[in-house]
TrEMBL record:
Residues 1-10 have a biased composition (Polar residues). InterPro entries: AstE_AspA_cat (IPR055438), Peptidase_M14 (IPR000834). The keyword Cytoplasm does not apply. It comes from Hydrogenophaga pseudoflava (Pseudomonas carboxydoflava). This is Zinc carboxypeptidase. The keyword Protease applies.
């Protein structure tokens, strides 16, 4: 397990103990540089899927020099008698395997479920952050703490509008994430500075893990995913306190959060089966390809378990 070193210097934006205002947020935004292309990496990949899926532009968000489309990929021949599964990636744009794992699932695995489930896949919820390898959106807001009404993040609000017509039909939602070394070196220090709080270093778990819902625990569902992913990459062990990122480990590689209370993406469908995946791409024991495969394995296992329980 990788430990962060104590950080004694304050994040270089803002005043210690004072939350950011508009000027600090604007300064933070001015320091973000476009490092990759949503059009080349995501839009082009989605375009290649149009022969087999329906594609919906469900909104747009600020890009700094224009607007970026929010894209959803849907099963062709949407069946009114079939349940719905939501797969989301890129809620945090810097979590690369969430985006590319969702796209890889569509290209390689989705056809196996075409006659049993309606798939709704949103590969990149936060395209501005994807291009800048960032956690937050254009306004220094974390989309994955913003799935509530009214939402402070346009990315989150748009996704909630997209899924609203299908409430009651979802059987599963798999939200694809990563936990990276940069969480400790950049994103948690930035959050502390933004909120006027002291930064307290933590640890980054080495391996794959899942976040279940405290209010709707589904241990069998989580275990099915862990079993499948363990064939691809290693599962994160508990830390010295018996937990993962400050939460008790309730089963190998599984912790729980109160999803709705925290405004997390996995709370938005009301599905019985929900999970948030967390891959560790900085591990010396994992490659980018393995991280993508871990995400696709998680989606396959989740859909298979949900369909077996539903009877499809």
């Amino acid at each position: 397990m990788t430990s962060s070193e104590a950080t004694t210097s304050f994040y270089p934006i803002g005043t210690p103990g004072k939350p950011w205002g508009p000027e600090e947020r604007a300064l933070w935004r001015s320091r973000q540089r476009r490092q990759r292309s949503h059009r080349d990496d995501v839009v082009a990949a989605v375009d290649r899927l149009r022969g087999h899926f329906d594609v919906q532009t469900y909104g747009e968000v600020e890009s700094g020099d224009g607007r970026l489309p929010l894209l959803a990929v849907r099963s062709r021949g949407w069946g009114s008698d079939l349940p719905v599964v939501l797969v989301t990636g890129g809620v945090h744009g810097y979590e690369t395997s969430g985006v590319h794992g969702a796209l890889q699932f569509l290209a390689q695995d989705a056809a196996a479920f075409s006659d049993r489930v309606n798939l709704l896949v949103v590969p990149c919820v936060s395209p501005w952050a994807y291009e800048r390898v960032q956690r937050w959106n254009h306004d220094a807001v974390d989309p994955n703490r913003s799935f509530r009404e009214p939402s402070p993040a346009p990315e989150s609000a748009a996704l909630m509008r997209l899924v609203a017509p299908f409430k009651g039909r979802f059987i599963a939602h798999i939200d694809l994430h990563e936990t990276t070394d940069s969480d400790e070196s950049e994103f948690r220090p930035a959050k502390a500075a933004r909120d006027g709080e002291a930064f307290e270093p933590g640890t980054i778990p080495d391996g794959f893990y899942l976040v279940d819902d405290t209010e709707n625990p589904q241990p069998g569902f989580q275990q099915a995913i862990i079993d499948e992913v363990s064939r691809v990459t290693h599962i994160a062990p508990a830390d010295t306190a018996g937990g993962i990122i400050g939460s008790p480990m309730v089963a190998p590689g599984v912790i729980r959060y109160p999803l709705r209370e925290l405004g997390l993406c996995a709370s938005i469908t009301g599905a019985r089966y929900t999970t948030t995946t967390e891959v560790y791409p900085d591990s010396p024991r994992a490659t980018p390809s393995q991280c993508n495969l871990a995400q696709t394995a998680a989606v396959r296992a989740a859909i298979g378990f949900a369909l077996a329980s539903w009877g499809g």
